[in-house]
Amino acid sequence: MRVSIDANVCIGAGQCALTSPDVFTQDDDGFGTVVPGREDGTGTLVREAARACPVQAITLHDLSDEPRG
């Protein structure tokens, strides 16, 4: 799985960082970001953090669904 946050949608609620701090953090402006090196989405409660986002800024990509090149 690959995880990303749409910076244009994020409102900085912080639910991702509270729910799964090993994968998500907040930048200096308070907006959600993925912890560097954790883009693979391995960590605790990643799916729950995506569900907790009030504006659905978090996307979880199932790598088995992506085309291989």
UniProtKB/TrEMBL annotation:
It comes from the Bacteria. Residues 1-29 form the 4Fe-4S ferredoxin-type domain. InterPro entries: 3Fe4S_ferredoxin, 4Fe4S_Fe-S-bd, Fe-S_cluster_ET. The keyword Transmembrane does not apply. The keyword Disulfide bond does not apply. Keywords: 3Fe-4S, Electron transport, Iron, Iron-sulfur, Metal-binding, Transport. Pfam families: Fer4_15. PROSITE patterns: 4FE4S_FER_2. Ferredoxins are iron-sulfur proteins that transfer electrons in a wide variety of metabolic reactions. This is Ferredoxin. The lineage of its organism: Bacteria, Bacillati, Actinomycetota, Actinomycetes, Kitasatosporales.
